Amino acid sequence: MPKTSHRLTPASYSATSLQGIIQPGIVLDCWTANARAKRFDVVARVQDRFRLALRCHVCGAISIVRYSVVMASQKLLCRHCLDAAQRKTAEAAGMTFLRRDLDHHKSAFYLAPCGHEVRRQFGFVARMAQGEAALRCESCLVIREEAEATRFGWSRLGRDPHNNANYRLYRHACGHEQRIARANLAWGQCDCAGCGQSWAAKPSFIYLLDIRHQASERHFLKLGYSARPVKRHRHQLGLPQNAQVEVLRVVAMPTGHDACRIEKAAHAQLQSTHPEAIVPHPEYADLMNVVSEIYRPSVRSELHRMLDEIEAQVALTGAPTHPEPSPQQPGNRVSNAHPAPRRRGHLLKPRHRRV
Length: 355
Ligand SMILES: [Zn+2]
Ligand SMILES: [Zn+2]
Ligand SMILES: [Zn+2]
Hints:
The protein is an alpha+beta fold and 355 residues long. The protein has helices at residues 29-37, 67-72, 79-92, 122-129, 138-151, 182-186, 233-236, 256-273, 300-317, and strands at residues 5-7, 9-13, 40-46, 51-56, 62-66, 75-77, 96-100, 107-111, 117-121, 154-159, 167-172, 177-181, 204-213, 218-226, 243-253, 294-295. The strands form five sheets. Strands 2-5-4-3 form a four-stranded antiparallel beta sheet. Strands 15-13-14-16 form a four-stranded antiparallel beta sheet. A hairpin with a 5-residue loop joins strand 8 and strand 9 (117-121).
């Protein structure tokens, strides 16, 4: 864009609403000619003796601009046309353009698909529209972090008071407040310095992993359970360094026994309802050292639905088969109440043939 181009200030005047601000005085021919050359018609002199109302030849909308700008600029850009273009780009990016950010001329506010309002730069939205960037909604992130914390008996209070972007401030069920690295809490790896409850002493978790190996274009889901934070599972699964693992879901279970029983039941159910989604062992034998519970990505929503049910059941009954207190209960000083094995034979058999 040449330096002498000028963006007209936003104004949504109609020809009739201009009546109240029309100024006396003649419109000089040179203004009219210059405006026309830049694809605008002069409608009237408005507001004060310096300004003109211009109608855009493209969209017909009216903008107000100083006549000196009309004369001096090589190019006049209609803000209404620019906004229309931004609306289109936003639509292609899956969002709704709401309004420009008057404090940052390169940004605007958008309605994200999740329903939250976000502020983003135009360039970023254009990259989104091209599929080169993805929106990470800050409000959704906070909601996700709150859910992650609740799962392990903590509540998210806010940002880190020491301003470390990787940390947040949390409150444990016992009332103790503590800074914890967000990644650690997401994996359930957090000791409370107030009551001494340790993540290692906590019961068990059912987890859902998304495993991708781009080099061989493989994509699987893994359902499993563990009494240890799932963070260790990259090692336990024997995945190569170039494999990507994302934890899609972690459901805290009152006991390892419950986790084992429910996870087995879920697997059996999938075997009967979605046999096509069960990946045959040879397809991943060289990638990881498990022998079962590897599913096709197509069954992802079904797995989430099953985990929803499990989560609801646990929330409703607490400890369905055991008298041990749930990990969410305050002051729960479970030390060695869960003899559930850290590694399950069926889950993590000794290493299989690896290529
Ligand atoms: Zn226009
Ligand atoms: Zn959101
Ligand atoms: Zn505590």
